[in-house]
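[Meeting: bench + compute handoff]

Bench side (C.D.) handed over the final construct sequence. Compute side (W.E.) agreed to return the predicted structure before the next meeting so the bench team could plan truncations. Sequence as handed over:
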Amino acid sequence: AFSATTVTGQIFRVPAGRPTVLYFIAGWCTTCLPESKALAQIDAQRHSQVAILAVDADPTDPLSSLQNFIQQVGNPGYAFAQDDHGALVNAFGVTALDATVVIDATGKVVYRNTTPITVQTLDAALAQAGLQ
């Protein structure tokens, strides 16, 4: 179990009691944009059924860089947080950007990937996490 403070000051908790996606990005990561937009589609369709947190994994990334990234994605409804001290990166063994971790409602990791993925792949991973 862990919690993170989002850039809007909210507390994001895992397990969240529902399937959760953690997506590790950086504000300057252009290859992270397509999956971030795919996550925005998932969030728009299933906001109440899935929790999504994009984690800025670059401890040197200023908040302004992350805010610019959020704007490029289209200001999606899901949460963003900065992992300034690497707590989430270390907890989930993340070694590269574009890393996706899907967790079921109980906190068990059911899917991992380190390359950009599509809405269809996200849907399949969320199905593994129990999302109908």
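W.E. noted at the follow-up: The longest helix spans residues 33-46. C.D. will use this when planning the next construct.
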